[in-house]
Structures are given as structure tokens and as C-alpha cells.
Specification:
By secondary structure, the chain is mainly beta. The protein is built from three helices and 18 strands. It has a single domain (4-260), classed as Jelly Rolls (Sandwich).
Length: 261
């Protein structure tokens, strides 16, 4: 259902870091509702909202999402539904130092249960967890098998404290192929919310950060339906892992998906 917040299209505020550092979540969300649409985002007249979650309840909507419960082998955290907390109009993916699933850390991962679009504009507003060693991800993955040529992954953003932003395209066609682009933000990503976007067409991918295009990539592989995902993972690739990670969260304000009319 298109909510009042959905009607403002890609509305999101670019706040002064100092203000957000001291502001409550409620104050931050109230301010974001008043913001003007960012440049580069879809014109509401040419697009229709086909999926959204404003995380206004007190738990993750089980009709929209499903959660990982287990211990993937390629990271240093196991991932559980208990690490996903919805409150104050946001969804938090909590990182905890606790032994579970054969790992020393726990984190979170959830994805759309039945919604798996092909093409569109994907946007979320999120804040990176405030410690090194955590991969904070907003991404898409197709349901194909690794040997059928239909399985791919589009990382709209994999952010690492304090200032690294990664955008990646992965494809499995018998062998793994990847094309990545990393850039360094001129500010601390954990001190305020940022708006992340991707326009996915049949032949092209366009990444956005706070309404500005940061990458453009032609492709001939991302042509199958894909699910929307959010996850955190403890891994040394994201920086030195220390006890400072314990209790930190990646925070998602909203997620919205549009398709052309």
C-alpha cells in the first residue's frame, strides 16, 4: 500500500552530522518525512511504488520478510532472527559478541519472502554500524543455481566503518565472476543516515548515494527476478575485529521499490 511517506518518492534528508549524532531516532524520522525528493531518484509521475516497508511496527513483518537462522561458513558471525529488532520506526541488525552456531559473534540477515522483482528502482535509508569489522549490506540476489547462468548478486551498498562504500556485481555461470567499485566517503558513515539507490534495467545498473549517481555499469546478465536483502556480517575484510563491535547496529529507516508504469 502506498503510504503518505511513500508518496514523497525518494524523500530523505541529508542532515548535519552533529545534529544526527545527538538526535533521537524519532526526531530523525520526523525530519526525514519533511525532506524534498533527492535528485536522480524516480519521478513519481513515471513510476509506481510496488513494495515498501517503513518499519513502523514492533517486529519484522513476517508476511514480507524471512530471516536467516544459522551459521554461514564464509563469515565470522552466525545470523539469527533475534538479532533483528524493529522499534522507533527503524529496523536494527544487532551485532553481539556471543558464542552461537560455532561462531564467536552473531549478526542478522533477512530478505523478501515472496517479492522478487525484475528491474526497477530500489532505495533504502540506512546508517552504518559504528565499528570496524562489520559488513553492512543492502543487496539483491536472484534465486538461480550457480550453474544455470541465472544466479547473480547486486550489492547496492556494502559499507564499512568509518568511510568505505562498496558496490559489487557478482555472477555465477559455472565460475564466479565479479566486478567491484569502492570509494571513500569524506565523512563518517555511522554518524547519520544515508539514502542508497539502484536503478536496474535490462541492460544497465545505476548506483546512487544520497541522490547522486556514483556508478554506472552495463550488463547482460541480471535478467532474472531477485529478492531484496539486508544483512550484517562480521569479517576481517571489513576491518579489524574488536570488542567495539559488540552492541553496534546497522539501522534501516525504510526500503522502497518502484517500477516504471
Amino acid at each position: 500500500m502506498l503510504t503518505r511517506r511513500g508518496l514523497i518518492g525518494c524523500a530523505a534528508a541529508v542532515f548535519a552530522a552533529g545534529r544526527l549524532r545527538d538526535a533521537s531516532a524519532a526526531e530523525s524520522l520526523a525530519a526525514s518525512r519533511k525532506a524534498a525528493p533527492l535528485p536522480g531518484c524516480p519521478d513519481p509521475a513515471g513510476w509506481q511504488l510496488v513494495f515498501s516497508d517503513e518499519f513502523d511496527g514492533d517486529k519484522l513483518d513476517a508476511d514480507k520478510w524471512q530471516c536467516e537462522a544459522g551459521s554461514p561458513g564464509h563469515i565470522q558471525s552466525s545470523r539469527w532472527p533475534e538479532n533483528i529488532v524493529v522499534k522507533d520506526g527503524c529496523c536494527r541488525l544487532l551485532t553481539r559478541k556471543e558464542k552461537r552456531g560455532g561462531k564467536e559473534w552473531t549478526s542478522g540477515h533477512f530478505w523478501t519472502r515472496s517479492f522478487a522483482p525484475r528491474y526497477g528502482f530500489f532505495e533504502c535509508r540506512m546508517k552504518t554500524g559504528g565499528a570496524a569489522g562489520l559488513n553492512n549490506a543492502f543487496w539483491l540476489m536472484a534465486d538461480g543455481k550457480k550453474d544455470d547462468g541465472k544466479k547473480f548478486e547486486i550489492d547496492i551498498c556494502e559499507s564499512h566503518f568509518p568511510d568505505k562504500v562498496n558496490t559489487n556485481l557478482h555472477w555465477w555461470g559455472g565460475e564466479h565472476w565479479a566486478k567491484s567499485f569502492q570509494w571513500k566517503a569524506p565523512f563518517n558513515l555511522s554518524t547519520r543516515f544515508h539514502t542508497l539507490g539502484l536503478e536496474w534495467t535490462q541492460d544497465e545498473l545505476l548506483w546512487y548515494f544520497d541522490g547522486k549517481q556514483v556508478r554506472r555499469q552495463e550488463h547482460a546478465i541480471c535478467r532474472s527476478p531477485a529478492r531484496v536483502r539486508f544483512s550484517t556480517a562480521v569479517m576481517p575484510w571489513a576491518g579489524k575485529i574488536t570488542d567495539a563491535l559488540d552492541g553496534t547496529s546497522m539501522i534501516v529507516d525504510y526500503v522502497r521499490v518502484w517500477q516504471r508504469k
